[in-house]
Design brief:
The complex is a heterodimer of chains A (about 350) and B (about 290). Chain A is mostly helical and about 350 residues long. In chain A, about 65% of the residues lie in helices and about 0% in strands. Classes of the chains: A mainly alpha (about 350), B mainly alpha (about 290).
């Protein structure tokens, strides 16, 4: 048994290494501006965010819709701390160069981004996590909106630049020229690896127990609030890092981009991948980004085949087709791509566990 | 002091009445299906677009009823296609489906309208200016509370006095028992969605007379606020939804008057969180207990 476990671990690591090498090669051969590279970058970032949301919604059964808010906190923390001193005056032109008068490195800033998001999560979690089910969903959604409004408030403009753009912070392109994919993959890989370790620990089992039956879990001696709070804070920590990475990917940052629609999108990715499956979320993220950014682009352009004008194709049709597919998944393939299994469990002979649907 | 606040108060009452009409749809659906119908805000937007296109071709006397009918058909279809197949599924699946529908409707409207803001037609009588004290406002500001109160009273009577209303109450108390008593729950649920959509259509006519640009995502925010109003008033209670909506509408505009426009949306959600923590049943909600 032990031996087999070791072999599986080695195979998994080899596969991961292979993916990294493939990502590296794609970037070297296609160039940084190609569609494939964009998809790999954004897909990886979304993968991290989706997995962090899955930790909450899929593994702990806490239906939270606050992801965009915590990403926003992470993204802003990162950007505020890393804008080079020389350029602060230009960025904060309406606020006398801002009040943050120091910069820190990119990697520490990513960490801080996660920590700030986690702090906010700890604060918000205390009242909100007492709510259940859809009330929790709507309250977290509300908090995300409050955060967005707050960040754009004039009075804290010296810190956040109000509703103006944040820019000139180190982005993927400027910080890691030529190696953007590898960098994203490594950061995302470490984060997802940590989440996987957590899920497979005793804490992870406690989370799943809470998801499956709160009352039974409590009877088994699991401190509900403590564990919920922990899942929430950790999920938001990684959402914060994900937000920072998204800011790096985008190049400029504005609070208005992080609306609840973004949370919905990530939730749909998680559902497509399968609630309770890390590998499902990763696969779904890349699929989602590849389809919306690249493969379905042709649906948005009017096309002529000979004299025949293909009907329906016009800007926006891509997203319509896309959302129809999502609805089909939601309605008829409720388990998503992976259900609650993992890619690396597929080979093993162990019978798939009985259907633990989303509760 | 009063003179400067008057326009904000008027706007608050008016927008509150419009939220109330949307909130009715949320509260009815939640009362019966325990579902936050995220798509309701988008049905409200769709009603706006129906009017934009119909008013261009038809006289208002025809366009108004047609808009209501089309919106009702849309709401009915959404329920049949996206929620009915999930009747026995876990509640969260239905909520995810609602989010999916909202996503689909927004994208569909973007595709069909080209993503540009459309100018809402001026409805005769509603869009005229009128002077109240020192404030100048549109007729719709005065019409909205009247319409809202009439519709809410009518709805309460429908629910308290008619057979279908009794069925709705029964289903909201206990889904399964109601079914055993011979109530056709699918019909009851359809009626709920039809009433909700019709209210949303009327609400959209009043709302867009004030805020005349219709965009595919414009309904999301009023939709969420209306939901908060429904929770505030006590989910399942129609007069509660109306009072909650009026309070939210007025507070929101007073916050704007204080120069904190940015927080007018945030206030709604802060209110929601406070209500949920302090009094989860809302102002007029009945006490329910979580069943094991």
């Amino acid at each position: 048994m032990k031996k087999r476990g070791n072999r599986r671990l080695i195979i998994s690591l080899a596969v991961v290494a292979l993916i990294y090498v493939a990502g590296f090669i794609v970037e070297q051969t296609c160039g940084s501006k190609s569609m494939a590279v964009t998809v790999l970058q954004k897909g990886a970032v979304y993968a991290l965010i989706a997995v962090s949301m899955n930790l909450l919604n899929g593994f702990t059964g806490l239906f939270s819709l606050g992801q965009a808010g915590f990403m926003l906190i992470g993204a802003y923390s990162y950007a505020i701390l890393t804008i080079p001193m020389a350029k602060r005056a230009a960025v904060y032109q309406y606020y006398d160069g801002g009040i943050v008068q120091f910069t820190i490195g990119m990697i520490p800033a990513l960490l801080v981004a996660g920590i700030v998001a986690a702090l906010f999560a700890a604060l918000i979690g205390m009242p909100v996590l007492r709510l259940k089910g859809d009330y929790l969903a709507i309250a977290t959604l509300g908090f995300a909106e409050i955060i967005r409004a707050f960040i754009q408030w004039d009075a804290i403009g010296p810190l956040t630049n109000g509703s103006n753009l944040l820019k000139t912070y180190p982005t993927l392109k400027t910080a890691m020229p030529g190696n953007t994919v590898l960098f994203t993959f490594i950061v995302v890989g470490i984060c997802i690896g940590l989440i996987l370790l957590l899920i497979n620990s005793t804490y992870g089992r406690a989370f799943k127990a809470i998801r499956d039956d709160e009352i039974a879990a409590e009877a088994m001696g699991i401190n509900l609030f403590h564990h919920k709070q922990m899942a929430f804070v950790i999920s938001c920590f990684f959402a914060g890092i994900g937000g920072a990475l998204l800011a790096m990917y985008q190049g400029t940052l504005q609070a208005n981009g992080f609306k609840s629609a973004m949370t919905y999108e990530i939730l749909l990715i998680v559902v497509i991948g399968g609630l309770g499956s890390v590998s499902g979320s990763i696969i779904a993220s890349f699929l989602f980004i590849a389809c919306s950014e690249w493969w379905l682009r042709f649906l948005d352009t009017e096309t002529m085949i000979g004299d025949f004008k293909v009907p329906l194709l016009a800007p926006g049709f891509r997203m319509v087709a896309f959302s129809v597919v999502i609805m089909v998944v939601v309605l008829f393939f409720r388990k998503g791509i992976m259900g609650d299994r993992e890619l690396w469990d597929l080979g093993s002979r162990r019978k798939a566990k009985g259907g633990s649907d989303i509760k | 002091m009063f003179d400067t606040l008057l326009p904000y108060l008027l706007a608050g009452i008016s927008v509150g009445g419009q939220y109330a009409l949307i909130a009715v749809g949320y509260t009815l659906v939640y009362g019966i299906l325990r579902l936050i119908n995220f798509a309701h805000g988008d049905i409200f937007t769709a009603a706006g677009f129906f009017m934009v296109y119909l008013a261009a071709a038809l006289p208002p006397a025809l366009a108004v009823p047609l808009v209501i009918i089309l919106t009702v058909i849309l709401g009915f279809t959404v329920e049949r296609v996206a929620y009915k197949p999930l009747r026995t599924a876990p509640r969260m699946s239905i909520m995810i489906s609602a989010i999916g529908v909202s996503y689909l409707l927004q994208n569909l409207m973007w595709y069909l309208t080209g993503g540009l803001a459309r100018q809402y037609p001026v409805l005769p009588g509603l869009g005229d200016s009128i002077q109240i004290g020192s404030a100048s406002t549109k007729v719709v500001t005065l019409v909205t509370p009247v319409v809202t109160v009439i519709l809410v009273v009518a709805l309460v009577l429908l629910i308290k006095r008619t057979k279908i209303g009794m069925a709705m109450r029964a289903v909201s108390v206990d889904f399964e028992t109601a079914q055993l008593m011979g109530i056709k729950i699918n019909n009851v649920i359809s009626v709920t969605f039809i009433i909700g959509s019709a209210m949303a259509a009327i609400g959209s006519m009043l709302y867009f007379t004030n805020y005349t640009a219709v965009t595919p995502t414009i309904g999301a925010m009023p939709g969420l606020k209306a939901f908060v109003a429904a929770v505030f008033g006590g989910i399942g209670s129609i007069p509660g939804a109306m009072i909650g909506a009026l309070i939210i509408g007025i507070c929101e505009n007073l916050i704007k008057a204080a120069g904190l426009t940015m927080f007018s949306d945030a206030f709604t959600f802060a209110l929601l969180i406070v209500v949920l923590l302090v009094r989860p049943t809302g102002l007029f909600g009945e006490k329910t207990r979580e069943k094991v």
